[in-house]
Amino acid sequence: MLETIAFVAFAFVTIASALGVVLIEEPWHAALLLGVALMSIAVHFVMLAAEFVAMMQILVYVGGVLVLITFAVMLTQREDTASDSDSEEVVRT
Q1: How many angstroms separate the most distant Cα atoms in the chain?
Q2: Under 8 Å between Cβ of 44 and 10
Q3: Residue 62's pLDDT is what?
Q4: 2-24 pLDDT per residue, tens
Q5: What is the spatial distance between Cα 43 and Cα 92, in angstroms, rounded to a whole number?
Q6: How many CB atoms lie within 10 A of CB 3?
Q7: Taking the domains of the chain in order of start, what are their residue ranges?
Q8: What is the rounded CA–CA span in Å between residue 61 and residue 67?
Q9: How far is 46 from 71, CA to CA, in rounded Å?
Q10: Closest Cα partner for 69 from 18, 19, 31?
């Protein structure tokens, strides 16, 4: 009974975070939710007694791919500052 409750709880976490990845507009929050989804999938592998696959899930996907995605998001995001809006006003006038 406890295994069923744990499975349902982690299935809900997986589905909710995967929907969040698709529906959230901010890339940084989507990347964090992708990490949550990948970690909860690793928990499902542990529940299936596939510990090696769970560790490879964490090492390869969470440790590698997610770090690469977060670096790409951090390096490509552009912040709008007050100096940018001032320069646009100068160009318009």
Answers
A1: 70
A2: yes
A3: 86
A4: 999 999 999 999 999 999 999 99
A5: 55
A6: 8
A7: 2-78
A8: 9
A9: 28
A10: 31
Helix residue ranges, H only, the chain: 2-23, 27-47, 51-56, 66-76, 82-92
CA distance 42 to 50: 9
Both structure tokens of 40: 């909860």
**How far is Cα 66 from Cα 57, in angstroms, rounded to an integer?**
11
Tell me the whole-structure pTM to 2 decimals: 0.75
At 62, the amino acid letter reads V
C-alpha distance across the termini of the chain, in Å: 70
Residue with tokens 């969470």: 62
Length of the chain: 93
